[in-house]
Amino acid sequence: MTIGQDRLHRRMARGTAFLGCEVAILCGAMSWVSERNLVAAMSNAGGFGLIACGAMTPELLDAEIAGTKALTSKPFGVNLITMHPQLFDLIAVCAKHRVTHIVLAGGLPPKGSLEAIKETGAKVICFAPALSLAKKLIRSGVDALVIEGMEAGGHIGPVSTSVLAQEMLPEIAEQLPVFVAGGIGRGEAIAGYLDMGAAGVQLGTRFVCATESIAHANFKRAFIRANARDAIASVQIDPRLPVIPVRALKNASSELFTAKQREVAQLLDDGKVEMMEAQLQIEHYWAGALRRAVIDGDVDNGSLMAGQSVGMVTKEEPLADILATLMAEAAHALEARAA
Ligand SMILES: Cc1cc2nc3c(=O)[nH]c(=O)nc-3n(C[C@H](O)[C@H](O)[C@H](O)COP(=O)(O)O)c2cc1C
């Protein structure tokens, strides 16, 4: 083992102990992309895969977990969206399979959900978009946090990863494992966040073009061609209808999203839907649009959710190779620090 590898190993020790794997890198759950093949490939390579439950029914999640278990004996987790109307049934499915780690995404955990997860024996990981919320989540008993900046692909907050890391890691990293996400494309950045106190990192965009990923060839091609500046955040058109911005490669679907927002805002105005239902309709729109691109390969009208690190995705390659590259870059950066 080189000095760099040894340092990397030690800096990741807390994260790997928490996750129960060899490398403290999570493959962030990506709806439609993070199914059994990508999840198993990530875990088999020594990292930590996460099934994206998204809008799946409990029956579908049941089948997906079973399918993943058939492909790997290594640990993996499940990402559940807090807004899902059957959240507690999904938690029960995870319990049945003895899933060890559950990530709650998409907003603050609803009442009773943390307790329900803890009762199953699983560890709970939440997203903390600000320091105050992180402290609140720590008080309510979460086991680990992900802090994700606006460089990320998919739904995003307003603050960059580098600012969140500086603001939050010194305050909370000693209390529980914190994983940094958003805009990470190379190992040097991973080494940097570990030095700042992160227990590990979470990447999404960088893994989309893994050979094992079932994303359509057109979707992967769009990633390989794109530059950082092509991954732009969606725009809210109506101040009365707050929508969480989504970062994706620009294409014709931005106009479709504008039209969808107008349609839903009109339903709100007419009193035909409540705000909660309006926001759920927006989320269903995204799930459908992402499916069109990832599964059907419609890269014009579907949503090409991608982070700004997309410019560093240059080819399709086995997941184990991507992970090995990231680890080698991180070790090299830490080795250089000795000089
Ligand atoms: C195509 C795509 C779909 C995503 N879907 C989800 C999701 O369903 N749930 C979730 O919590 N995060 C989702 N994310 C965010 C990732 O899990 C991860 O946190 C993010 O990609 C990390 O930032 P990066 O893309 O800069 O690496 C998605 C990201 C992408 C690129």
How is this structure best described in words?
The protein has 339 residues and is α/β, with parallel strands linked by helices. It has 2 domains: 237 residues, Aldolase class I (TIM Barrel); 92 residues, no CATH class. The protein is built from 12 helices and 12 strands. Helix 6 links the parallel strand 5 and strand 6. The mean pLDDT is 96. The structure holds flavin mononucleotide (FMN). Flavin mononucleotide (FMN) binds next to strand 9. Keywords: Flavoprotein, FMN, Membrane, Monooxygenase, Oxidoreductase, Transmembrane, Transmembrane helix. It holds the Pfam family NMO. GO terms for molecular function: monooxygenase activity.
Features:
single chain; 339 residues; TIM Barrel; 8-stranded parallel barrel; 4-stranded antiparallel sheet; binds flavin mononucleotide
Query: If you average the pLDDT, what whole number results?
Result: 96
Tally of DSSP helical segments: 12
- Indicate the low-confidence ranges by residue numbers: none
- Number of domains in the coordinates? 2
Helix and strand composition category: alpha/beta
Could you tell me the CATH topology label of the largest domain.
TIM Barrel
Large-scale geometry = globular
Give the name of the CATH superfamily of the largest domain: Aldolase class I
- Strand order, main sheet: write it out: 1-2-3-4-5-6-8-9
Keywords: Flavoprotein, FMN, Membrane, Monooxygenase, Oxidoreductase, Transmembrane, Transmembrane helix
Pfam family, one: NMO
Transmembrane segments: 12-33
GO molecular function: monooxygenase activity
